[in-house]
Amino acid sequence: MASSVAAQPRMAPAVLRLFFHDCFINGCDASVLLDATPFSPSEKDVEPNASLTGYAVIDDIKSALEHDCPATVSCADVIALASRDAVALLGGPTWSVPLGRKDSRFAADPESTKNGLPSPHDDLGELIRMFSRLNLDARDMTALSGAHTVGMASCKTYRDRVYGTDRDEEIDPYFAQTTQQTCQGPSGKAPFDVQTPMRFDNA
């Protein structure tokens, strides 16, 4: 992870997001890594997973492990460990990662993937319901959502809230103005955290 992030800093938030998207659907089973086959679709191809990156980082780590310890460490454990290290490399906390996850041989159903992941358009009540289905409470949801302290988002996912007729009056006016300047078009990207976009902090 250290060498990957040194070469491409954006890989740290990318791997963290990959882990969340994997775990939120059917648990932390690395099914998000599976490519489509004639018999099975891929979670990669379903919105909102179509914008996931970081697969090459996981592949490189897995290849190195297979060379030294063949058939020992699951891809699911690799993603969990890589995410922990990504957070630490961004200045965030570290934690002990219990190992022993099993890799899934099948991707989740596309409809389950599409409807099962939180959307930027979900309101608080819906988000709390989605997390509670996984036995996670509002405090867990808040802590996990804090990962948005790093990384970028496509402007199209939230542009209407800060720039246009659907502007949410509860959004901080300065933040809305800054985002309007960054998101001139739907194809751009803007940092979640304009102050410290690549630091895992609570600023």
TrEMBL record:
It comes from the Eukaryota. Substrate binds at P118. The active site is at H21. Its cofactor is heme b; Ca(2+). Binds 1 heme b (iron(II)-protoporphyrin IX) group per subunit. Binds 2 calcium ions per subunit. GO terms for molecular function: heme binding; lactoperoxidase activity; metal ion binding; peroxidase activity. SUPFAM superfamilies: Heme-dependent peroxidases. PROSITE patterns: PEROXIDASE_1, PEROXIDASE_2, PEROXIDASE_4. Ca(2+) 1 binds at D22, G27, D29, S31, E43. Disulfide bonds join C23-C28, C155-C183. Residues 1-203 form the Plant heme peroxidase family profile domain. Residues 180-203 are annotated as: Disordered. Keywords: Calcium, Disulfide bond, Heme, Hydrogen peroxide, Iron, Metal-binding, Oxidoreductase, Peroxidase. Ca(2+) 2 binds at T149, D193, T196, D201. It catalyses: 2 a phenolic donor + H2O2 = 2 a phenolic radical donor + 2 H2O. Belongs to the peroxidase family. Ascorbate peroxidase subfamily. This is Plant heme peroxidase family profile domain-containing protein.
